[in-house]
Design brief:
Helices cover 49% and strands 0% of the residues. By secondary structure, the protein is an all-alpha fold. The chain is elongated, with a radius of gyration of 24 Å. The structure holds zinc ion.
Length: 148
């Protein structure tokens, strides 16, 4: 690297995966810089403008303030985000990743544990939803997402 231009640098074939990935991002920025794609509103280059350009267009979801706000514990926000995205590591997902388990719901021990069962079909969950809502709450995936 010494005395060479960073923009023209090409990693060696035996370079680490991480270094090659950094160089791929560098090449993206180089291409964006040459084509004036990541200038901010004033026509100047900044790290923030480059980061926004690299991320691409973002859509704001309606449940964002419920999950991500300053009154929530960050760990709880993260778990709520996983639940909404249906990415919580339920037993069916663990099995899909090859992590052995009995597959049964730990709350009722009578059904297989997946996202839908854990939050909307398990008798224990239904009782919890009923208590939390003050009674009469219809538990379903659609009702939950409507609540958000
Ligand atoms: Zn259950």
């Amino acid at each position: 690297m010494k005395g060479r231009d960073w923009f023209d640098y090409v990693p060696f074939i035996n370079s680490s995966w991480t270094w090659k990935k950094i160089c791929v991002v560098k090449d993206k920025f180089k291409h964006g810089y040459i084509n004036n794609q990541w200038c901010d509103g004033n026509g100047e280059y900044s790290v923030a403008a480059g980061y926004r350009w690299l991320q691409g267009p973002q859509t704001k979801v309606h449940w964002f303030p419920v999950v991500w706000n300053r009154f929530n514990v960050p760990k709880h926000s993260f778990i709520a985000w996983l639940i909404i995205k249906e990415r919580l590591l339920t037993k069916d997902r663990l099995l899909a990743f090859g992590i052995p388990n009995d597959g049964k719901c730990d709350l009722c021990s009578s059904h297989n544990e997946d996202h839908k069962h854990l939050f909307y079909q398990c008798e224990f969950s239904i009782r919890c939803w009923d208590i939390l809502s003050g009674g009469g709450y219809v538990v379903s995936d659609l009702a939950f997402k409507k609540y958000l």
